[in-house]
Amino acid sequence: MGRKWNNIKEKKASKDANTSRIYAKFGREIYVAAKQGEPDPVANQALRLVLERAKTYNVPKAIIDRAIEKAKGGADENYDTLRYEGFGPSGSMVIVDTLTNNVNRTASDVRSTFGKNGGNMGVNGSVAYMFDATAVFGIEGKSADEVLELLMEADLDVRDIMEEDDVVIVYAEPDQFHAVQEAFKNAGITEFTIAELTMLAQNDVELSNEDQEQFLKMIDALEELEDVQQVYHNVDLGDEE
């Protein structure tokens, strides 16, 4: 799964380079999670997950607190969670997750962005079946053997454990997220380079230089859209970060 980790790193690098945009997206996601349940991460699993992801992106505490306080204050902004699927050049596949207060605007923007960048939007289910929902953790300062041992002690059987660039990557079932996280915390591991639920392609594709350039422009344009929270794809970006 090494190439999958490269793709995750590329996604994080892209977002880390656009901090104001990613902070705004997290603020919205935290607000929605807090409003839909208790505004307390101890009692609200969805909120706890968002806050764990926010931590790996260094989202300032002020932004987190503001979003939670907004939810506590009874703000009446309503958002829908919608997923769009589409295709790029040479068999590339893309999943776009959005959080929107205007479904028509978002659908139009996503469709237009695909079309303007050499892609096209597909119907529901046309792409998602080629991806697996996956919990992913990245840990520094431990070996793969040490991580495997502590997970075995917690009676957890995960999908895969690998070591790359001094980071141990753990791939687990999505419903194992909190169990794996708890096992790490019980072992004194509280800092992660990545801790999130993602969509990983079952098979990656490689593109020519020209197609990859066009594909990356499409991904960047999709991620620039105000309502887009996450973009997943099946392209092996190699050393592109």
From TrEMBL:
Q: What is its main location?
A: cytoplasm
Domain (TACO1/YebC-like N-terminal) ranges: 3-74
- A biological process (GO) annotation for this entry? regulation of DNA-templated transcription
Q: Name one GO cellular component term.
A: cytosol
Q: Which Pfam families match?
A: TACO1_YebC_N, Transcrip_reg
Transcription: is it a keyword of this entry?
Answer: yes
Domain named TACO1/YebC-like second and third is located at 79-235
- What is this protein called in UniProt? Probable transcriptional regulatory protein AB986_14525
Instruction: Name the species this protein comes from.
Output: Guptibacillus hwajinpoensis
